[in-house]
Every structure is written in C-alpha cells, then in structure tokens.
C-alpha cells in the first residue's frame, strides 16, 4: 500500500514560492523571518530539531533536487565541513554579516539612502531596481533587501553543496541547524543536570 504523504512533506513548495516572490516584490522577503524564528522557537520550547527533521522546506528542496532529480553527485562531504570549528566558525561569520545587515537597516531608518540591491554571497551586488517599495518606509524595504540577500545566499551555497556532495550536505553547516543543535544540546544538559539533582 502506498504511504500517505503528510502535509509538511510539501513545504519545499513554500521555499520555491518564497524565492520566486522576492523577484516580484522584495517586500515578501519579510516572510522569511518565520523560517528564521520557527526553528529557534521549536528548539527552545521543545528541545528538539523537529523543524529540520520535518518542516524545513529548503532541506526538502535539496533532497528533491539532489535525490529524486539526481542532480547531486552524492559524495560524502569533506570532513572539515562537519568539524566543530568550521560549523561554529561559519555560524559566527554568518551572524556577523547578519548584524551588518541589521546595522545597514538601522542607518536607513535614521535617514541614510536605501540601497536597492540584493547582495549575493556577501560580495556580488545584483541590481533590483524594479522593486517597488514606495508603500513602506525605506528602512522596512532595506531590511527586505538584506534578508532576501541572506536567504538567496544560503540557498545558492546549499545548492552548490548539494551538487558537489550529498543532497542535504548544506544541513551539515547550515547556521540554523548549528544554532538549533546548540540549543538542544544546552537544553539536554540542563535536563540531565536536573535529573542528577533529583536522583542524588
Ligand atoms: S539544517 Fe538548515 S537547511 Fe537543513 S533542515 Fe535544518 S534549517 Fe533546514
């Protein structure tokens, strides 16, 4: 009998729609904040990685493209990619760049000129002149440009990693994955400590 698919197995469609909407109106980038906060909230409240295991549309997308559509070489990722120093180093770099993006947003709220570009891989400035952001304050639009840059950059990195290695190799060093894993680890240690307290 064919296994009934669960609704969350189709969340990859949401990821595709999200990336596509950004081309039509950059303000849709704000929706990505949900993908940023949900894994953290689940990790903090439940102490598990249910988001990664079930609800991450991006992870599903790589699985689909690399696994089902055979776009992946399906080679094991290099060891350094899995190492702690690389994963936490990349997380630190990623969060620093995220902070720079937030600062740029703050400056625009303070009156600086908005920069209507999407920055790919933190270096390449892609003009996004067609974006009509007149309905919101410039600071709100600046955040959308910055956040979409983050989302597009991580998707491109994930896509290249998928091509070169196994379909979900991006998950090995994905900053969200590293953060949620760290939170789960801290939570499980706390639970263990509490258990020890009650058992001793
Ligand atoms: S590690 Fe990142 S890309 Fe992979 S499933 Fe988790 S949040 Fe999604």
TrEMBL record:
Q: Which domain of life is it from?
A: Bacteria
The family database entries (InterPro entries) matched by this protein are listed as: 4Fe4S_Fe-S-bd
Q: Which Pfam families match?
A: Fer4_5
Protein name as annotated: Membrane protein
What is the originating organism of this protein? Anaerocolumna cellulosilytica
């Amino acid at each position: 009998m064919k296994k009934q698919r669960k609704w969350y197995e189709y969340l990859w469609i949401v990821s595709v729609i999200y990336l596509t909407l950004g081309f039509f109106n950059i303000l849709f980038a704000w929706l990505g904040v949900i993908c940023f906060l949900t894994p953290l909230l689940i990790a903090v409240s439940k102490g598990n990685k249910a988001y990664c295991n079930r609800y991450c549309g991006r992870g599903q997308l790589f699985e689909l493209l690399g696994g089902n559509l055979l776009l992946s070489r399906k080679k094991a990722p290099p060891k350094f990619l899995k190492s702690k120093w690389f994963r936490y180093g990349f997380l630190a770099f990623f969060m620093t760049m995220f902070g720079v993006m937030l600062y740029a947003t703050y400056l625009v709220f303070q009156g600086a000129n908005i920069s209507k570009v999407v920055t790919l891989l933190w270096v390449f400035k892609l003009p996004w002149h067609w974006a009509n952001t007149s309905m919101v304050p410039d600071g709100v639009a600046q955040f959308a440009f910055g956040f979409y840059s983050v989302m597009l950059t991580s998707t491109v990195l994930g896509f290249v990693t998928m091509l070169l290695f196994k379909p979900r190799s991006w998950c090995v060093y994905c900053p969200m994955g590293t953060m949620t894993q760290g939170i789960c680890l801290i939570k499980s240690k706390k639970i263990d400590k509490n258990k020890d307290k009650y058992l001793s």
